[in-house]
Design brief:
This protein is an all-alpha fold. Helices cover 72% and strands 2% of the residues. A hairpin with a 2-residue loop joins strand 3 and strand 4. The N terminus is likely disordered.
């Protein structure tokens, strides 16, 4: 609740009066939108009872009214504070804190309105997904999760699996809005709730792509410090994730060069032994290190270079072979390096 520091009593009453009036206006407007929705929905149900294939002419209007109602009422709740007064009209003070005491006026009506329409807002979200209206779907699913997690709505007791599934669809909607931060957060909530995939769509794959999109965006704009901070924050929440470590390697390589990225890629392979990209990148930076040494010492003979760079090529080769075994669909990507290493090792004999 917002704290007010009372300089003079009349000023405090003016401030709180404005807030109470704002809450009242929001409450009445939100209630009117819900009443509009209920009326339209009743007409829709009646029409379909009379004729099953009757066109749904008010679907968009219903959804708009419901979402507007949720928006207004959720704005009203934190403003619904009224100063308690003594019989003589003075402000009632809390004896423990020494601050004015407050009470709510409209919340007892707002909460039932919100909770009684909780399933309706899910319906709007589902319709948004089907119509590919992802902003509408995201807002609806976000309203649902905000409401079911609110302390005042504890009586709802929703099915945890359903909450996790809705978190997935909230993330799915945000993903196609290209709001990758919101998408990652919602997907993570779904995953934490035990919701791992929807059909063939894996939650972890969506999360990984959200990270990749953010990292690429930063790096494309040469914002390497921001990219580094972003990936470090993500890794802090999931330190054993090999994909994230591999993404960190990419950022370090772009910022400080391939040699600085080598230990990061190595760690990625240790965290995720099935990550082909991590093995490829780890092998590639070792390969690049050998090539750089050769280029920087072009005056030396192969015999002189062999003791220095042959071990590096031999170290890189099994990493490419591992990546190839993990990613058979793209084997030509790795074969090119393997064959080139064999050629170079032969030349260095």
């Amino acid at each position: 609740m917002k704290k007010f520091y009372f300089l003079v009593a009349c000023a405090s009453l003016m401030v709180m009066g404005a807030n109470a009036q704002t809450a009242e206006e929001l409450y009445k407007a939100g209630k009117a939108e819900f009443e509009k929705y209920d009326k339209l929905y009743g007409e829709y149900v009646l029409a379909h009872q009379q004729k099953e294939d009757a066109p749904d002419a008010t679907a968009t209007e219903r959804a708009t009214a419901l979402m507007k109602g949720f928006e207004l009422l959720q704005k009203a709740l934190p403003l619904d504070t009224v100063i308690e007064k003594n019989k003589d009209g003075s402000v009632k003070m809390d004896k423990k804190t020494g601050k004015p005491k407050f009470k709510t006026k409209y919340s007892k009506d707002i909460v039932p309105l919100l909770t009684s329409h909780i399933n309706d807002v899910v319906g709007v979200g589902n319709s948004g997904i089907q119509a590919q209206d992802f902003p509408m779907a995201f807002k609806a699913f976000n309203y649902y999760r905000t409401l079911v997690n609110a302390p005042f709505a504890a009586s709802l007791k929703p099915d945890p699996e359903m909450v996790s599934e809705i978190a997935f669809f909230e993330g799915y909607s945000a993903y196609f809005m290209k709001d990758y931060d919101a998408a990652y957060s919602a997907f993570k909530s779904a995953l934490n709730g035990g919701y791992t995939q929807n059909g063939d769509l894996k939650v972890s794959d969506f999360m990984n792509d959200c990270v990749a999109q953010k990292v690429n965006s930063f790096c494309n704009d040469n914002k390497f410090a921001e990219a580094n901070q972003y990936i470090d924050n993500i890794i802090a929440g999931d330190p054993s994730n090999g994909f994230l470590q591999n993404a960190k390697g990419f950022v370090v390589e772009m910022k400080d060069g391939f040699e600085a990225a080598e230990p990061v890629y190595k760690k990625a392979t240790e965290l995720d032994p099935k990550n082909a990209d991590a093995f490829f990148n780890y092998g590639r930076v070792i390969y690049e290190k050998a090539v750089k040494i050769a280029n920087d010492n072009s005056s030396k003979t192969n015999k002189e270079l062999a003791p220095i760079i042959s071990p590096l090529f031999r170290e890189a080769k099994p990493l490419f072979e591992k990546a190839k075994a993990l990613d058979e669909k793209n084997e030509s990507k790795y074969t090119r390096y393997i064959e080139d290493i064999d050629y170079k090792l032969d030349m260095l004999k």
